[in-house]
Amino acid sequence: MTTHLEPVTFGECPLRIEDVLALANRQVPTQLQDDAAYRQRIAKGAQFLDSLLDKEGVIYGVTTGYGDSCVVAVPLEHVEALPRHLYTFHGCGLGKLLDAQATRAVLAARLQSLCHGVSGVRVELLERLHAFLEHDVLPLIPEEGSVGASGDLTPLSYVAATLSGEREVLLRGERRQAADVHRELGWEPLVLRPKEALALMNGTAVMTGLACLAFARADYLLHLATRITALNVVALQGNPEHFDERLFAAKPHPGQMQVAAWLRNDLAIDAPTAPLHRLQDRYSLRCAPHVLGVLADSLNWLRSFIEIELNSANDNPIIDAEAERVLHGGHFYGGHIAFAMDSLKTLVANVADLLDRQLALLVDVRYNHGLPSNLSGAPADRAMINHGFKAVQIGTSAWTAEALKNTMPASVFSRSTECHNQDKVSMGTIAARDAIRVLELTEQVAAATLLAANQGVWLRAQAEDARPLPPALAAMHAELVKDFPPVIEDRALEGELRLCLQRIAEQHWGLHA
Question: What's an example GO BP annotation here (predicted)?
């Protein structure tokens, strides 16, 4: 872990998406707010709950059953057993396990929510949850089984159970029993107090953690797609005047104007240009700012939705120790994250469609203004047996189609569950998982189109009348050629595509600083 950066502090100060991303990538240390006043405020909530138990007050999920069983009173002699039963019967998740990066984001989102001090948990619970992050003890969380209200109950049951020394965790890349890891680290497993299992599970941490990661990937993809478009304008001998500043002053959506400005910079639009083949390029070049600008403009309000959720208390009931009140509500409902992720996957899929159309132009001799068929770099005497990027374009079409198919909004598929208590649910976690999948597919499209654009630029540079590349594109092209040499004789490109995807995941190329 990088330790020279300022630590991320969990407590009263809000976190940003970038904090969660850095933490999920183990790039920053973390700490828990530790001043006496803060610790006292956290402790006061748990103490207030204990005082209510002494008075035999009725508290949902503490002295009652869960969900539709809220009308079932739990005798005081069984109250201590209730938290374990909650995480136990929710241990029914299926599907793939969340990866390490996503699991850290989930732990961070849950810890930040509980740090508001209105969930009725002990300081010791916050400390142990933080210790899981600090020591990289990662609960193995199946990603399927949440309808997004009452929060992410089933996946978060794996957090509650592993804090209690049950189920399995990942430590240093090895799958281990949680009880064994507790012993190795010298910890006593927590015995969850009344309300603590509910506080851990009854919230939006899984969808919110995934949303933070999805947002960061989409933001980088926006910059990358802009750079790929600039490379394709050069490769296709497009008209850079489509991005003129005066043109965009007439339709001043800020994000659209920003993308056009990035393209002007990449293309050095004020420099002399080559004679134009077409007065107007096809839409996938000419309208790139209009397509990418929608994503650029949307990121600001998506950030607001995600960061408010991240920095909220989103369990039920809310414990107001100062006013000595228990407030029963529905803050576990993940509607804002559901909408944000349903929106993001549509925005991102449009990027896939844009780049797919650009690649289709690149490989087709009817539209690529003199480039070889399928971008093959083979000499004339071997051109008939070489096919360059033909199959890559087919694959890109498949990835794009799948991305577009996955844009069906999850949030409208609410199902009535749990004996019609949870009769309107958010589906936010499914929306977030869909968004991650659409991003994966669109990044594959971006990787393919980037390698093809780089090949197109290289082919264009072989001409006798070739013009020098603008500085930003020249630097990018030189860096790409180190890892991805030109395709002259056909070769299998899977390894290079996977390396390009790794570079995208690492946000390797600094774009539009």
Answer: secondary metabolite biosynthetic process
**Residue 348: inside a domain:** yes
Is 151 part of a structural domain of the chain?
yes
* Per-residue pLDDT at 71: 53
257-262 contact pairs (CB < 8 A, 24+) = 257/289, 257/293, 258/293, 258/296, 259/222, 259/226, 259/288, 259/289, 259/292, 259/293, 259/296, 260/289, 260/293, 262/223, 262/226, 262/227, 262/230, 262/512
Note whether residue 512 is domain-resident: no
Same domain flag for 137 and 252: no
Say if residues 65 and 78 touch (Cβ distance below 8 Å): no
- Closest Cα to residue 155, out of 144, 147, 165, 163? 144
Residues 185 and 274 in one domain: no
Amino acid identity for residue 279 in this structure:
L
- Eight-state DSSP code of residue 97: E
Domain containing 67 — which CATH number? 1.10.275.10
pLDDT at 62 > cutoff 80:
no
**What value does the mean pLDDT take over residues 254-275?**
86
Q: Which of 60, 66, 158, 220 is catalytic?
A: 60
How many Cα atoms are found within 13 Å in the side-chain-facing hemisphere of 217?
33
Q: Residue ranges of the alpha helices (H) in 115-253?
A: 123-134, 153-163, 178-185, 196-201, 205-235, 245-249
> Same domain for 58 and 90?
yes
Selection from 339, 430, 427 nearest residue 149 by Cα: 427
The domain of 24 spans: 8-203
Q: Which pLDDT tens digit goes with each residue over 117-136?
A: 999 999 999 999 999 999 99
Give me 505's structure tokens: 């995941």
Task: Give pLDDT tens digits for 445-500.
Answer: 999 999 999 999 999 999 888 889 999 999 999 999 999 999 999 999 999 999 99
Name the nearest CA neighbour of 63 among 195, 157, 192: 195
Is position 66 annotated as part of the catalytic site? no
- Domain end marker among 177, 203, 229: 203
Q: Could you tell me the two tokens for 371?
A: 């480039």
Burial class (CB in 10 A: 0-12, 13-18, 19+), 37: exposed
Query: Residue 313 pLDDT > 90, yes or no?
Result: yes
Inter-CA distances, 69 with 66, 196, 314, Å: 5, 18, 21
